[in-house]
Specification:
The complex is a heterotrimer of chains A (about 280), B (about 260) and C (about 270).
Chain A lengths: L15 E14 L2 E14 L3 E6 L5 H9 L6 E6 L2 E2 L7 E4 L11 H7 L8 H14 L15 H13 L5 E5 L7 H18 L2 E6 L2 H7 L2 E6 L4 E7 L2 H5 L4 H13 L10 H6 L5
Parallel strand pairs in A: 3-8, 3-9, 6-7, 7-8
Antiparallel strand pairs in A: 1-2, 1-4, 4-5, 9-10
Chain B lengths: L2 H34 L11 H13 L3 H32 L1 H15 L6 H9 L3 H25 L3 H9 L4 H38 L6 H10 L3 H30 L5
Chain C lengths: L9 H36 L10 H13 L2 H33 L1 H16 L2 H12 L3 H25 L3 H9 L4 H38 L5 H10 L3 H29 L11
The chains are: A alpha/beta (about 280), B mainly alpha (about 260), C mainly alpha (about 270).
Chain lengths: ~280, ~260, ~270
């Protein structure tokens, strides 16, 4: 019995906040054209947590950079609230894989750096910084420097920095990839809690399937060369809550199968039809 | 860890700590011995005692203290001029790619002219007294500062640039919060080297343009009048000042940058 | 993996390759051209007296004249000879001393502090002393140049050997290398890049100290030309010699960069901040 069904809609009656339509992106490498993203369609509703999984080379990180507005050279549409994205803005923030904290600023300074362009008053900014640092549980280290923090702590500061502006969208580019496995597991739950608390719409890119299934409301499975969406799957609440539940395992195996890994790699033609990229 | 190794350790550590001093001590002893036992011609190598005595006379009734202060004055003035020019130009070259393409190659070509070749030209342009010396010291201090600053700005990781884009930093914000602090280590390296070069240039200009008071002038005097004790004293003074510059530069570097590294 | 490859069209490709190169060349020579122009205008309109800034034509005429009567070549060769000999002596001693200090930690812990202290005193400071000991003949030049070369070479050699990654040395132990094998297979290639940088620094230092020595205590050579020109207040001589010095400096640099590729093709160029 298959409880998992492909679905593009999260909540039927709410308009999508982020819409990507027919996105194509190519790079020119040594005179040749390399297609990185082909025909990507994605709609994200407000408050959704969407995880994007795929092997290297499927353009996941490129997709995030396009949504951020760091790169304007593409064909297709990227719309936030119906308006096309033209430049970076405080409504979209990102957590990088390398935390990219400025080593010469304290934790407090780093989080405050994101407020440089914010119209808030000085006291409001200070309050926001304090609040975010508390949210990620690092109040004790407010005056510490990045060099004094562990990898996990530094990444938490990066998360606080990304959230201090109360952005509409929180983009995460393999944020836990550089951490050891135990820290990763701990931070995954932290991340879920924080995003839920802030009610931000989140897009997380990862190559860890377990992470993707555990954190997301929907999971976007991408395949490389060129990068395209293979399937978008809704994650039932049961799977999100419990890593040992049947739903979780089944969903994880399905995703792994789509990625061509593990026992779920489909052998028969009948099953292979289910793996066809859906557009 | 056994008791024996525990006992042996402090002794070995002490030995390691004392080794540099034993080295210096050995040199001093050799110096004393060679004079005492006549291994060298006493006309050429004065005894440490003679040098010490000369030092005493020079600092009480002689002009050495004044000479030192003059040299230091020129050094600091010239270095200040050269270093500020170097900083400004280096920052400009680092931030503006057009500036880099136009000015860069000529600057690199200018660097190829051996430093001291500038002395005669500068002395012809600015005179052989203070101004000429300070001009040369400025040129000497300028070169390492401009190169290191330039390379420091260029070497800023693009990851930080991207971060500044994402946080929509203005140009000023970028310079203030990312570019300048990020370049600071390279700037310090440049200033450190500039300091050393400027001190060298101070000495050189004084040796070559022997008109006004200064340590170089005293060295020349010692050489010409065959006063070895003065000569040795001069060299020791030079070495000490150079050492002081070096260690204070290193101290400042570690202090100001210590928070950034583990 | 399929790449959408677009076949480059020959003529267009060559044009698009040529254009940035031309633009680069234009940028590079723009500043010198402007300076040259300013120089020419200044001497034409007499903004600066002839004695301070001789006209470009005069400088050019001087170069031509010195070239014709062979004295320019003569002085240049004298300087080059001194550098060649002094540098070879200094580099060789520096390499040997550096190797000894690098490979024998006991020797290093005794000698290193004294050496670094002495090394900080520039050749220049030793000159008045050396002149008394060695006179102002060729020996002085060789000693000065050799010493200025030996200092950076020794420092760089010691550091590069001592800094060979302990991981690699450990690898040698795992493979049960003899000490000789360890040195030849691991230490030397690993140290080679910074060693070469040290040699480059040594050459730069040799060139610098040649100029210093020739300015102070010589009767021939490019440095002497400068001093002589200065004394006669014939700045065209000074500028001529400076131009030759710059040219030699540039070519030395270029030659060494080229050699570096030969010596260590597996390594990109080490950055050279001084």
């Amino acid at each position: 019995m298959n409880e998992i069904y492909p679905s593009r809609n999260f909540q039927v009656d709410v308009a999508p906040t982020l819409e990507i339509r027919h996105l194509d992106k190519s790079f020119t490498v040594v005179g040749r054209e390399l297609k990185v993203l082909a025909g990507v369609d994605l709609s994200v509703k407000s408050g959704e947590f969407v995880t994007i999984v795929g092997a290297s080379g499927c353009g996941k990180s490129t997709l995030l950079r396009l949504i951020l507005g760091l790169d304007l050279d593409y064909s297709g549409d990227i719309l936030v609230d119906g308006a096309p994205v033209r430049r970076p803005g405080l409504d979209r923030s990102i957590v990088f894989q390398d935390h990219r904290l400025l080593p010469w600023l304290t934790v407090e300074g780093n989080v405050a750096a994101a407020l440089r362009r914010s119209p808030l008053s000085r006291s409001a900014k200070q309050e926001a910084v304090r609040e975010q640092i508390e949210l990620v549980g690092l109040t004790q280290f407010t005056k510490a420097y990045p060099a004094q923090l562990s990898g996990g702590m530094a990444q938490r500061v990066a998360i606080a920095r990304a959230l201090v502006n109360r952005p509409r969208f929180l983009l995460l580019d393999e944020p836990l990839g550089a951490l050891d496995a135990l820290t990763r597991l701990r931070l995954q739950d932290e991340l879920k809690r924080i995003v839920q608390h802030e009610e931000t719409t989140a897009l997380l890119v990862t190559h860890d399937v377990d992470e993707a299934v555990h954190l997301g409301h929907r999971i976007v499975v991408m395949q490389p060369h060129p990068g395209r969406i293979a399937r978008i799957i809704s994650i039932p609440e049961q799977a999100r809550q419990d890593r040992s539940s049947r739903e979780f395992i089944r969903l994880r195996d399905e995703v792994l199968g789509l990625l061509g890994v593990g026992t779920a790699v489909l052998q028969t033609p009948k099953q292979a039809r289910l793996v066809e990229p859906s557009r | 860890m056994t008791v024996d190794t525990l006992r042996a350790r402090p002794l070995r550590n002490a030995a390691r700590y004392w080794r540099p001093f034993t080295a210096f001590g050995t040199v001093l002893l050799l110096w004393l011995a060679s004079v005492r036992f006549g291994w060298v011609d006493p006309h050429f190598v004065p005894s440490p005692a003679a040098v010490a005595a000369r030092a005493r006379t020079e600092f009480t009734t002689g002009t050495l203290a004044f000479d030192i202060s003059e040299s230091l004055r020129r050094n600091i003035t010239g270095f200040a001029i050269g270093a500020s020019a170097g900083l400004l130009l280096g920052l400009w070259l680092g931030f503006s790619s057009t500036a880099e393409r136009i000015v860069g190659p000529s600057l690199l070509a200018f660097r190829q002219i051996a430093l001291f070749a500038w002395v005669p030209l500068l002395s012809a342009w600015f005179g052989g007294a203070d101004a000429g010396k300070i001009a040369f010291i400025a040129v000497a201090g300028f070169q390492p500062v401009v190169i290191n600053t330039w390379q420091g700005v260029k070497g800023l990781p693009s990851a930080y640039r991207e971060l500044a884009d994402v946080l929509i930093f203005s140009r000023i914000d970028y310079v203030r919060f990312v570019a300048l602090p990020g370049t600071l280590p390279a700037i310090f390296t440049g200033l450190h080297a500039g300091l050393i070069y400027a001190w060298l240039a101070t000495l050189g200009s004084e040796l070559f343009l022997n008109v006004t008071p200064g340590i170089g002038g005293r060295l020349n005097e010692g050489s010409q009048l065959f006063e070895m004790d003065l000569l040795f004293l001069g060299i020791i003074v030079l070495a000490v000042i150079g050492l002081l510059y070096n260690s204070s530069a290193v101290w400042m570097e570690t202090r100001l940058l210590r928070r950034r590294t583990r | 993996m399929t790449l959408t490859a677009s076949a480059p069209r020959p003529v267009e490709q060559r044009m698009t390759n040529l254009l940035p190169v031309l633009a680069n060349v234009a940028c590079t020579i723009s500043l010198p051209l402007v300076l040259l122009l300013a120089w020419g205008l200044s001497s034409r309109f007499g903004w600066l007296p002839e004695q301070i800034l001789p006209a470009p034509e005069v400088v050019w005429a001087t170069i031509a004249e010195l070239w014709r009567d062979g004295s320019l070549i003569e002085h240049t060769l004298v300087s080059l000879r001194r550098v060649a000999i002094g540098f070879s002596i200094g580099a060789l001693s520096g390499l040997l001393a550096g190797a000894a200090l690098g490979l024998l930690p006991v020797v290093r812990s005794f000698v290193w502090p004294v050496f670094t202290a002495v090394a900080q005193v520039n050749t220049l400071a030793w000159l008045p002393l050396l002149v008394l000991f060695v006179g102002i003949d060729e020996e002085l030049k060789y000693v000065c140049i050799a010493w200025s070369t030996a200092v950076p070479v020794t420092l760089a050699t010691t550091r590069s050997i001592a800094d060979v990654s302990p991981n690699l040395v450990e690898l040698g132990r795992v493979f049960d290398f003899t000490p000789m094998q360890r040195v030849s297979v691991i230490v030397v290639p690993a140290a080679l890049p910074s060693l070469f940088t040290g040699v480059r620094e040594g050459l730069a230092a040799a060139w610098q100290s040649l100029v210093i020595v020739e300015l102070f205590a010589s009767f021939d050579g490019l440095g002497y030309l400068i001093t002589w020109g200065r004394q006669l207040f014939q700045l065209e001589l000074v500028i001529t010699a400076m131009l030759v010095i710059a040219a030699i400096g540039l070519s030395l640099n270029a030659v060494l960069e080229y050699l570096e590729h030969f010596v260590q093709p597996w390594k990109t160029e080490a950055r050279h901040d001084r």
